[in-house]
Amino acid sequence: MTTTATSETPMVFADRVSKSFGSNEVLKGISLTVPRGEVMCLVGPSGSGKSTFLRCINHLERVDAGRLSVDGVLVGYEERGDKLYELKPREAARQRRDIGMVFQRFNLFSHMTALENIIEAPMRVNKLTKDDAVARGRELLARVGLDEKEDAYPAHLSGGQQQRVAIARALAMEPKLMLFDEPTSALDPELVGEVLDVMKGLAKSGMTMIVVTHEMGFAREVADQLVFMDGGVVVEAGNPDEVLGNPQHQRTKAFLSKVL
Ligand code: ADP
Ligand code: MG
Prior knowledge:
By secondary structure, the chain is α/β, with parallel strands linked by helices. It has helices at about 50-55, 90-95, 115-125, 130-145, 160-170, 190-205, 215-220, 240-245, 250-260, and strands spanning about 10-20, 25-35, 40-45, 65-70, 75, 75-80, 85, 100, 175-180, 210, 225-230, 235-240. The chain is globular, with a radius of gyration of 18 Å. This is ABC-type polar-amino-acid transporter.
């Protein structure tokens, strides 16, 4: 698997990406570009295909048609000359290691402490020594404001703290792209801010991010692009102030009137 990515290569490039489950066409030709270092917020009603799109980027679903690349490498396929070959599982796994994903539910290992959750993959997958993994894990816990909690088990952490550990755990693999799928939707309202603050810091540090969220304040402040999806298509995309302030499509207006 070779890549000719340069600083000009978008981190994510989707060109007419389609995906069906049986007869249900969930993605109907999604085209979008996320340049490296930028943040895209993806919004839209439930069932519009947002999670499926993230899952395609992360090799959790297979694209049926169209092209999808991460950092210049086709996802699901490999190009040799003018032919496309399906990626082997090992190549797909290799690509996935560069992508961090944070879900609505925290998905921490309940039998491991915060620090153990963070060092597990770097030790097992990246073969870091325990000392190195722990040193890095502590730095990451400090970065998400949880340096006091390294020995705490998930059950003893609030939802917001668990989600911050989940972000630190994803960062421990040094991803070049972070995907967030409604990371604050399951949180009590008073815990949302602390998670969004960590995400804002990450965006400021230059991380490339795609964030599915209904937090429009966050989108307005952090996103370079806001994409509104409905029914498996991109209805509208652009600068968040423009899309939020002056939506062009009736469907966007109707959706925004419910979440703003
Ligand atoms: P969103 O994240 O925007 O709410 P999803 O991507 O989760 O939307 O779902 C879009 C559509 O795809 C829904 O109709 C959902 O039922 C369907 N879907 C998602 N995953 C699967 C699956 N694994 N098998 C069958 N249908 C699925
Ligand atoms: Mg979803």
